[in-house]
Design a protein that fits this description.
Layout (H helix, E strand, L loop, with lengths): L12 H18 L3 E8 L7 E7 L2 E13 L3 E8 L3 E8 L4 E9 L2
Length: about 110
């Protein structure tokens, strides 16, 4: 567990724990997962990789897959879209659905 910095004196354990919980809640609220519609390329398997996705009323084309990895329950695609932003798209293998996990400015 990451230790919380103490500024201006010692914080109680309860205060540190409260700050930690608030930090996790803020991180969760800033990175809300959003269901999206994804169009995929199907090659040797169905839905092999995403080629575009719709979020809100915007359709974005995927210019580049930067990185991809798998877990037992999901496939992750870190992509660069035609709007210049990076996105983390997650295919939930259990529910067979796509989720937009994170949006970030491309560096």
């Amino acid at each position: 567990m990451k230790a919380l910095p103490c500024h201006g004196g010692q914080k109680s354990e309860a205060s540190s724990f409260t700050n930690l919980i608030q930090s996790w809640q803020n991180r969760f609220l800033l990175n809300k997962r959003t269901d999206i519609i994804v169009e995929c390329y199907s090659g040797y398997k169905a839905d092999e990789r995403p080629v575009s996705f719709i979020t809100g009323d915007k359709k974005l084309m995927i210019d580049k897959i930067i990185e991809q990895w798998r877990s037992p329950d999901a496939e992750y695609f870190k992509v660069l879209a035609d709007d210049g932003k990076g996105y983390l798209l997650v295919h939930d293998n259990i529910n067979d659905g796509w989720v937009l996990e994170k949006v970030c400015e491309h560096q």
